[in-house]
Design a protein that fits this description.
The structure holds two protein chains of two kinds. Chain A is mainly β. In chain A, 0% of the residues lie in helices and 54% in strands. Chain A is built from no helices and eleven strands. In chain A, the strands form two sheets. In chain A, strands 2, 4, 5, 9, 10 and 11 form a six-stranded mixed sheet that branches. In chain A, strand 6 and strand 7 form a beta hairpin. Chain A is globular. In chain B, 0% of the residues lie in helices and 56% in strands. Chain B has no helices and eleven strands. In chain B, strand 7 and strand 8 form a beta hairpin. The chains are: A mainly beta, B mainly beta. At the A-B interface, strand 5, strand 9 and strand 10 of A face strand 9 and strand 10 of B.
Chain lengths: 111, 115
């Protein structure tokens, strides 16, 4: 059973609007969450992270929100740009141990 | 070279072949990883090496054999693979494992097709 789920395989957003990518998890022991971005023919690259002691972390156009009671996190990208078109992976870890990954959401930014 | 490199980028092999995937990291990291990514599935961790010692082996079939001769190099030796082993194989490195930094740096991957 998947401990980290990204239920939307793909998402299409107009350029300039907000992109919201969602991730749900089942393991209450997870204490650190990360988002990675992957372009075709490249490996995933780290984007932004959040510790379970926080509920929000912001880095430029990217903000990650964590709702521990709902076991849900989301990545907001605003404004969305064409270069944001990629596959976004959510990952989680418990006690500094191995990362557990979601299946990814393909984000398409329309001009 | 910078970051994490992987060779070859593409590999087609028959079920009776023996081949090896190579990964090299130029980041001075102490931990290296092999992941398998099948289409529309989460990344699956296969092996973790920390300071050249294998610290994690996630129930991977013995037809996959890792080797870490030093902290900069990681190999994945393949033999008698099955068609379902066709996937993208990603190598990654991080400062430590377990460690205070969860951030992993990935190579571009090797696209493996088993015929």
């Amino acid at each position: 059973d998947q401990q980290v789920k990204q239920n939307s395989p793909s998402l299409s957003v107009q350029e300039g609007r907000i992109s919201i990518l969602n991730c749900d998890y089942t393991n209450s022991m997870f204490d650190y969450f990360l988002w990675y971005k992957k372009y075709p023919a490249e490996g995933p690259t780290f984007l932004i992270s959040i510790s379970s002691i926080k509920d929000k972390n912001e880095d430029g156009r990217f903000t990650v929100f964590l709702n521990k009671s709902a076991k849900h996190l989301s990545l907001h990208i605003v404004p969305s740009q064409p270069g944001d078109s990629a596959v976004y992976f959510c990952a989680a870890s418990a006690n500094n141990y191995q990362l557990i990954w979601g299946a990814g959401t393909k984000l398409i930014i329309k001009p | 070279e910078t970051g994490v490199t992987q060779t070859p980028r593409h590999l087609v092999m028959g079920m009776t072949n023996k081949k090896s995937l190579k990964c090299e990291q130029h980041l001075g990291h102490n931990a290296m990883y092999w992941y398998k990514q099948s289409a529309k599935k989460p990344l699956e961790l296969m092996f973790v090496y920390s300071l050249e010692e294998r610290v994690e082996n996630n129930s991977v079939p013995s037809r996959f054999s890792p080797e870490c001769p030093n902290s900069s190099h990681l190999f994945l030796h393949l033999h008698t693979l099955q068609p379902e082993d066709s996937a993208l194989y990603l190598c990654a490195s991080s400062q430590d494992f377990p460690g205070t930094s969860y951030e992993q740096y990935f190579g571009p991957g090797t696209r493996l097709t088993v015929t």
